[in-house]
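Q: What would this chain look like folded?
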Amino acid sequence: MINNGIGIVGSTTIDKIVSQQQSVSKIGGVTAYAGITYSRHGLDTLVVSNIAKNDRTIIERLEQENIIVLNGQTNRTTHFVNNIKKDFRRQKVFNRARSIQPCQLSAVIKRVGGLHLGPLHPDDIVPEAMTALPNTDLKVFLDVQGYTRKVVAKKVSAAVSRHLTAALNAAHILKANGAELKVILEYYQKGLTALMETFEIEESVITLGHKGGWVVTLNGEKFEYPADRIENVTDPTGAGDVFFAAYLTCRFLNNQDIPNACRYAARIAARQVEGTYISLDRLILP
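A: My prediction, written as structure tokens:
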């Protein structure tokens, strides 16, 4: 399975983080946070993304973490601005890279055992790229965040994309936060169990920030987990991505049960919020 390697697909971003303490620009996206987490757990890690030539520093930083970057052509790199106040985040998108194409997924699916889909907006991955995935032996992990957003006049707000259905058809394991789950269930007019049955989702991982979260299986078992203690909140950006990658590594590389995987992932995510897991110096951009 994922011991054969993992591919992460989605935008790698320039994130400007604005908080009460500071304003910094750093590398972001599921590809960065989950990619570094997988790599640090000893997995062969490939990132499929579109990063502009002028932003070669981003690729170099990921390569320093032993990540192979399969970069496509684009004139610009996706650029987010995140205004953070405690657990509240307001986002804007100032640039979007070229959408990831079917040929880019074809280049990676034969090289890995698992595929982590981490789109950051609805058009991050061309929907046609999803059509071949259900016919592969890959384990497909889906973070739904990009399919629960719309971008209008650069502002990000909640909305379910019509492209989500194709992604759900391809996925085996689903990850959403509480707000994302709510809009998805309203969109499909189904409960989570019915949604999982429709799309044959094996496990759904629901994160609730400092409240912890829960995991539910296709047979209806539910496992709740608490958040790990955090001594000092530095920056919550990427904590959900780190949690999901750590959970999946524990489950499908180390063959741990769901409660153990949740506890382990919560511990790693807490260190990310404290700024001690993927430290700022590994991500900050000049």
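The first helix runs from residue 30 to 40.
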